[in-house]
Amino acid sequence: MLDPMDRNMFTEALRPPVGFSLDCTVATTYTLDLASLLVAPLSFTVFDWDETEHFSDLDPIALLDALRQYSDRMSLFCQAGRIRIPPSYNRLFSYLESSVHEVNLSREGASFHPKVWVLRFVGESGEVWYRLLVMSRNLTFDHSWDMMLVLGGQLRDRVNAYSRNHPLGNLVETLSTIATEPLDDTTQRRVDRVQYEIRRVQFDLPDGFTDYRFWAPGAGKTRTWPFSGRRDRVLVISPFVSSRLLARLAGQGEEHILVSEPESIADTDPEVRERFKQIYMIGDDPAVMGAGPDEAEAEEEYPEDGELRGLHGKMFVADAGRSSRLWVGSANATYAAFHGNVEFLVELHGTRYGSGVDACLQSASGDVCFQDILVPYAPTDEDESAREDELDRRLEAG
Predict the structure, then answer these.
(1) Which of the chain's termini has less CB crowding within 10 Å, N or C?
(2) CA 317, CA 324: separation in Å to the nearest integer?
(3) Within a 13 Å sphere around the CA of 389, how many CA atoms are in the beta-carbon half?
(4) Helix H or strand E encompassing 114
(5) Which long-range contacts (CB under 8 A, 24 or more apart) does 259-265 make?
(6) Alpha carbons 381 and 362: distance in angstroms, whole number
């Protein structure tokens, strides 16, 4: 199911459906590259732009026109202090000043970490269509392996909300309360309308799934642990992991699988790693060579070859009998992600055959699959030395 050759452009996901135009968008990200935000308005038009191009190579007249038309329709919220300023100033950035809002959480050590775009489109006859982009990537030019889920649905004329949509509505509603500066009237009205309407959108399910549920840990008074219930087998894909969280995920069932970055794997407790039958990392093929995810502040320069490097996608899969549940979104497999941070995930229900652990790693048709770009994790000498020191410490402690 995770076909590494099936790559979707983020800009294509922003384009309006046929017969619709963008009314407004409310988006969130952890880190923000102002240059990457410049190209979002182009996606709302019919402008033919390729993500491999740099914004400085674009038609300046078309870019200016798009900014004038759409910059005041965007409201983007990011973690305070996580805006990447390009080395050279461009006057076009001035059009984005009113679109960007920094947020900060009062909880010590907690981060605002969701990567969500909520787009409101209006049709020629007045009907309203929402599109939800749930991603693992930040709004940067990072070239890591990422994941994106796209859901769409029509706004329904109903008094009562869909209860399953409340976590998404709560996330949007929370934005105005955690912004470092009071929102202007236009942005506040936009946030209020989107949080109200999004609770009344009937989202269409992707093929092969039977149900969905939203999770927004840290946003409002909602449950923060999505993985309760039966778990016969678990697949964890996350660039950052912690022993405490992995131990809880693998607390039941067997033959679990972990995919992460080698440095993160090495920092986990060896006894926790033993609960996973297989541990993988991205292979060292030039096209998928690891370079580290951007939350570690490693992206000072962008790869010029456009190749994907390093793991940044986050996904959890749990098999239970013939059924499976899949979670995709912003949360890493760390304790902080579910105990302090603001995150967002979508839980999808399906069958073990269609969307379970094996289905995510392998291909029933024999085509290229996600497991083809993975290699088994092999501890280094430093890892073994750390493991021996830990064993000695436990022996001394009795």
Answers:
(1) C
(2) 7
(3) 7
(4) none
(5) 259/235, 259/311, 259/374, 260/236, 260/311, 260/333, 260/377, 261/290, 261/292, 261/293, 261/310, 261/311, 262/290, 262/377, 263/292, 264/238, 264/239, 264/240, 265/241, 265/377
(6) 31
Q: Is the pLDDT of residue 294 over 50?
A: no
Judge contact between 238 and 332, C-beta under 8 A.
Answer: yes
Helix or strand or coil: residue 103? strand
Tell me the C-alpha to C-alpha distance, in Å, between residue 148 and each of 135, 138, 151, 313. 4, 11, 10, 9
Q: Which residue has the tokens 């239970």?
A: 320
Which secondary structure element, helix H or strand E, spans residue 168, and what is its range? helix 166-178
Tokens linked to 341: 């941070």
Give the single-character DSSP code of 294.
Answer: G
Q: What region does 41 belong to: left with phi over 0, alpha with psi -120 to 50, or beta? A: alpha
List pLDDT tens digits, range 157-184: 999 999 999 999 999 999 999 999 999 9
For residue 195, what are the CA distances in angstroms to 28, 123, 190, 212? 14, 20, 9, 19
For residue 69, what pLDDT is reported? 84
Single pTM value for the model: 0.86
CA–CA distance, 173 with 194 (Å, rounded to integer): 8
pLDDT at 78: 97
Q: From residue 131, how far is each of 20, 46, 73, 254, 257 by CA, in Å?
A: 12, 18, 15, 37, 32
Q: What's the pLDDT score for residue 320?
A: 97
DSSP E strands: which ranges in the chain? 20-29, 32-33, 74-79, 83-84, 100-103, 116-123, 128-135, 148-155, 201-203, 211-215, 233-237, 256-259, 276-282, 315-320, 323-329, 345-351, 374-376
Sole residue written with tokens 């320069």? 301
Question: What is the per-residue pLDDT for 214?
Answer: 97
Q: Give yes or no for a contact between 30 and 115, defined as CB atoms under 8 angstroms apart.
A: yes
Q: Give kind and range of the element (H or E) at residue 38.
A: helix 34-38
Write a three-state SS string for 307-320: CCCCECCCEEEEEE
Tell me, what DSSP letter sits at residue 112?
Answer: B
Residue 326: pLDDT above 70? yes
Residue 266 and residue 382 in contact, taking contact as beta carbons nearer than 8 Å: yes
